[in-house]
Design brief:
The mean pLDDT is 87. This protein starts with 17 loop residues before the first helix and ends with a helix. 0% of the residues are buried. The chain contains 4 helices and no strands. It has one domain. The chain is mainly α and 102 residues long. Helix content is 42%, strand content 0%. This is 3-oxoacyl-ACP synthase. InterPro entries: BrnA_antitoxin.
Amino acid sequence: MATVHFRLDGSNPPEPTKEERERFDALRDEDIDFSDIPELTDAQLAEMRLVAPGEVVPTKKQLTIRLDAEIVDWFRAQGRGYQTRMNDVLGAYVRAVKRETR
């Protein structure tokens, strides 16, 4: 028997059929079985960031950069995720400068 490979494009899911839509519409929240989905922890929720529908999440580029030790030490002292926070600060600066130059 041949193996069929299928890749679902998460950004372009197939339209549900009429029967599927009717079944979804009839489904009540209390009928949904969440038993195989673990609860999210506070730590996981804290790591999440809101992404608006249709928003493109930018790709990251790896690079080597020299920063003042004081800057790196301060961000590292904030704990896990310090590189993401550094990126967020730089991103906020870029957006602010772009707003000023409009």
